[in-house]
TrEMBL record:
InterPro entries: Acyl_CoA_acyltransferase, GNAT_dom. Signal peptide: none annotated. Coiled coil: none annotated. This is N-acetyltransferase domain-containing protein.
Amino acid sequence: MASWRGMTNADIEGVLRVASEIHPDLPESASVFAERLSIFPDGCLVLALGDDICGYAVSHPIRTGHPPALDHQIGEIAPDADQYYIHDLAILPRVRTRGLGAQCIEKLLLVADGYQTTCLISVYNSASFWGRFGFIPEPTDTVLAAKIRGYGQYAVYLYIM
């Protein structure tokens, strides 16, 4: 049975394999995953089935309304970070529909508990999936809207209180 656990540096190769299958049009480099893991390990999880990585999640605090651009390093968590950001949740199709996405979101929302809101950029028309957990669209300014477009045609900025 697949289960979620904390990500390690040894998992990054497996994370890249999952990312290339799930997000072929939204590539991110190994250095981005390694950086997020080094600066906020509590927000980095992998879905492991034995030694096989079949999913991952990356999340971290940000300043409200300032999610990172796709495939960009952020350097550090801003000292004035006041919003939690779920950067990515990806699960291979062969292990979906087992409630594993919900398990991961529950874990991430526990980490996010100290923040007033949690946000994400929904991709591939997945806003309805996130809506099941209470996420709703958030209005964006011009700068944020331009950044969101970098995540693809169907990207939507969502948040939950």
